[in-house]
Specification:
- With 441 residues, the chain is mainly alpha-helical.
- It has a single domain, classed as Orthogonal Bundle (Hydantoin permease).
- 77% of the residues lie in helices and 0% in strands.
- α1 crosses α8 and α1 packs across α14.
- The model has no long low-confidence stretch (mean pLDDT 92).
- It binds phenylalanine (PHE).
- The site of phenylalanine has 15 residues, from α1, α2, α10 and α14.
- Phenylalanine binds next to α1, α2, α10 and α14.
Length: 441
């Protein structure tokens, strides 16, 4: 059977952007940026995205597009037997991420419900924080939502590559973008908003620490879906006519814009209503209802926001599950349906632990982190950067001719920056990531 392909070039970009833009940009970016003090963190994040992010995005997509294989097969084809191990680690990483991602995805569904029943339509920071904290600490309720989110993810994956992913991504992302703009305008016109804007945008480089740098790097990998083979998988479905650098640039650009806008959306609200900037994973969930409460039709906007956030999360979780499931299909010729069901159940079970670690199991910690924090840290700050080093080495040293060929335009010309990409992948990217990792160990 011929390998599935995206219906159109735009379909490919949108689906890859659908994978990238998700909870990373809208849930994780604002709270990690706020925990790290804003300004300087934003600058570091942007520098990393514009250097490592774009190069690795081109590298990963080209690896997929030139081999037409999912990560394990792609690494094996280009690097040889041992390299397939990097693909295995990527699959494992997808597994770990989706297990806690689905928990947060479940929160978005819960917040749709809370918006519908109107219980969170208030600007009282203490009430909103307590509501969130007691919800995630509940031993039962979040698990139902987690199950619902995982189930929906599995359903989309079972519908197949094109129908499932491409259709969902197209229109709703545009709506999300527009809604975020509306919310930014509302937030910025509230008294005191300027403090939030300044905190978000004004860098104070005297506060930069190694921890901040690794957090920014991990966040970049996570929110761009890099370093674990997801973009290899997506690239493998690209048609021969697809010019990878354009697609990679669009995906990076879009995701970065959404990260930036999410910051502009959340930071002012923190200061206007007096939330704690270091609130952590709840930040988007607790601050946004306060903004809705100050809008006419606030309930409608609340429902719409959490619904679109849910959809954004779903298009990302689908890509994570696709990495895991297509591994078993491509490597072991196992049936798609069975593997989707089995993997969903296993990830659901691990996610139960992640969810409980925010409540009844919160005292079980390792290096001061609960299971939720460990899954997040290990995947974003360790495995994905490691994957980044490996893909850079593969592209820069082992398989450059194949990659350069794939990056050559149909008319035979090569982009002027091609040698730059080679040099960056050969030397700068591996060393840079390695140094940032070492600083933190
Ligand atoms: N980038 C996704 C998000 O920001 C998460 C993700 C990571 C998806 C890795 C796929 C692979 O929500």
């Amino acid at each position: 059977m011929a390998r599935a392909e995206w219906g159109s070039r735009l379909g490919f970009i949108l689906a890859a952007a659908g994978s990238a833009v998700g909870l990373g940009a809208i849930w994780k970016f604002p709270y990690v940026a706020a925990q790290n003090g804003g300004g300087a963190f934003l600058v570091i994040f942007l520098v990393i995205v514009c250097t490592l992010g774009i190069s690795l995005m081109i590298a990963e997509m080209s690896v997929g597009a030139s081999t037409r294989r999912s990560p394990v097969g792609a690494y094996r084809r280009l690097g040889g037997k041992w390299w397939s191990g990097v693909g295995y680690i990527g699959v494992l990483c997808g597994f770990l991420i989706l297990s806690f991602y689905s928990v947060v995805g479940g929160w978005t569904i819960a917040y749709i419900v809370k918006s519908i029943d109107g219980s969170i339509l208030t600007s009282n920071p203490a009430f909103l924080s307590t509501t969130f904290d007691s919800f995630i600490a509940d031993p039962v309720l979040p698990l139902w939502y987690h199950a619902a989110f995982m189930g929906l993810t599995a359903a989309v994956v079972l519908a197949g590559v094109q129908k499932g992913i491409e259709q969902v991504s197209k229109y709703l992302m545009v709506m999300l973008f527009l809604l975020v703009l509306v919310l930014i305008v509302r937030g910025l016109t509230l008294p005191g908003a300027i403090d939030g804007v300044l905190t978000f945008l004004q860098p104070d480089f005297s506060k930069v620490t190694p921890v901040m740098v690794i957090e920014a790097m991990g966040l970049a990998f996570f929110s761009m879906s890099l370093g674990m083979g997801c973009m290899i998988t997506y690239g493998s479905y690209a048609s021969d006519e697809t010019y990878i650098p354009n697609s990679a640039g669009s995906v990076i650009g879009l995701t970065t814009i959404i990260c930036f806008l999410s910051g502009l959306m959340v930071f002012p609200a923190i200061f206007v209503f007096g939330f704690d900037p270091s609130a952590g994973p709840g930040l988007t969930f607790i601050t946004m209802p306060a903004v809705f409460s100050q809008m006419s039709g606030g309930q409608f906007f609340g429902i719409l926001f959490f619904f679109l956030l849910f959809v954004a999360a779903l298009t990302s979780s689908v890509s994570l599950m696709e990495v895991v499931v297509s591994f078993f299909i491509d490597e072991f010729h196992l049936p798609r349906t069975a593997m989707t069901v089995v993997m969903s159940i296993l990830m659901f079970v691990l996610g139960i632990g992640a969810s409980l670690s925010l409540g009844v199991w919160k005292d079980y910690t390792l290096f001061g982190k609960n299971l939720f924090g460990i899954l997040d840290y290990v995947s974003s700050n360790l495995i994905m950067p490691f994957g980044g080093i490996m893909v850079a080495i593969l592209v820069g040293w082992k398989s450059w001719p194949v990659i350069a060929d794939r990056l050559t335009r149909a008319d035979g010309t090569q982009p002027v920056w091609l040698p730059l990409l080679k040099g960056f992948c050969r030397y700068i990217a591996p060393v840079l990531i390695f140094v940032i990792l070492i600083q933190n160990l």
